[in-house]
Amino acid sequence: MNRRNFLISGSTALAGVLLTANPLRLYANADDAHEYKLPKLPYKYDALEPHIDKRTMEIHYSKHHQGYVNKLNAAIADYHDLSEMSIENLLRNIEKVPMKIRQAVINSGGGHANHTLFWNTMISDGTELSGKVAEALQTTFGSLKSAKEKFATTAKTHFGSGWAWLVVDDKKKLQIYATKNQDSPLMEGHTPLLGLDVWEHAYYLKYQNKRGDYVDAWNNVVNWKQVNLNYVEAMKA
Fold this sequence. Notes:
Layout: E1 12-14, E2 17-19, H1 54-75, H2 80-83, H3 87-92, H4 99-120, H5 131-141, H6 144-157, E3 162-168, E4 174-180, E5 191-197, H7 204-207, H8 211-218, H9 224-236
Antiparallel strand pairs: 1-2, 3-4, 3-5
């Protein structure tokens, strides 16, 4: 079964919130075109207001994310074996991608994967941090407050463009760190649970140079139920 011919079967609804066992597989297609597709945004452009404004969401999704998809397809156009892989497997096996296109796949494939997870870990009004991931955060960082503070500090202090991440590493432990540009934790053998885009295009229309205000506002729309499901699935893998 290839990337385009299945939809993840683990989708479920909890308390009215649509969850999926692996957001990185949401863009599977039914056609035979050897290309990746922009996944459907799981809410309207204005759903996250006032924390993330409608115009930023529209540009971010339809221009930036679509651009990464287009450039990824162009990079792998002559490599049909790569286009048959899920974006998760493609990035986990980045060392097998030909050097000629590897950086393009890192940039645009990472952009595609990172944004797909990003959209699906946000929801209007947010959800409560609970479940197995809350237990693991308390064990790893001492308290939920400490974990949230570490994530926020990582996002606010990262220099330049990039992402802040909560991941399960290759030893099944939680880590919080930042990556540059569109680099993905998948390339390190880690499974991203939650990612925050700190490129200026993610916040500049509303927050200008005040990244800290954007990070604080974003905390109000985190879909922790999805993050918890991501954690449960990562620990099974």
